[in-house]
Amino acid sequence: MRIAMVGLGKMGLNMTRRLLRGGHEVVAVDRSPAAVGEASREGSIAAASLPDAVAKLSPRRVVWLMVPAGSPVDESIEILQPILSPGDIVIDGGNSKYTDAPPRAARLGARGIQFLDVGTSGGIWGLAEGYCLMAGGDEEAFRHVSPVFAALAPPEGFAFVGPHGAGHFVKMIHNGIEYGMMQAYAEGFELLQTAPFPLDLPAIAVLWNRGSVVRSWLLELAGRALSRDPGLAGLSPYVEDSGEGRWTMERSIEAGVPLPAIGLSLYMRFLSRQENSFAMRMLAALRNEFGGHAVHPASPGKEKG
Asked: Exposed, middle or buried, 252 (CB in 10 Å: 0-12/13-18/19+)?
């Protein structure tokens, strides 16, 4: 099958490579000519723009968007709407908010174009291990594109999960769970590091992946990171979030479903970015006010949080 891949970042480029290795033809397009050049050197068909990419497809056209969530997706759809034909398929494989999928599907559907929102998990390891794909939208379109999904995913690694929005909803919850798991591993290894005797943390990570109930791919990655830098001295304790953890918590409030572990893991990411927390200074001030407890003066240049 020939498919256009729009966006050749760390996910899109590797997905292009995996599709090529699976025997598919890929029309590659990106704002970066260097990225398009790299993809074409590996066997893809270079396109200079979205219209150029569409012109290099044959009906029934399939266009996969791997662009940042939000306006880049809508801008791509605006370009695609007038140049695609009824029966063509647009896939949004990025980290879009699930509530954006139904209106996008409606806009495309008004012209007979089908839409799939596909939660895509695998990160930089997807090329070798395959991508887990969670698809929502038009089920007939899903069946048509299944050969592409099969090339990208490991065995049993893709599924149709429901109507428009369901794919990104399932991926959102997946990422919320991921936040909680990562936080639990981080806290556990920090406590291991405080042991009153020497412990080999990389070896423990390997050990726990041999039959333990806490074994996982994340734990394998923890072992790799610790093997390279046992004290993680080369890293700053600053952790970003992609937005999906926030959307997970928004949904938990709407549904009245308590998510204490996932919620706290998100807040810990916020905390990691505070160099001089006002809240912590307030705690110190209150403790001093009611109990006369000692406080530590601010370092020069650290008066403001």
From this structure: middle
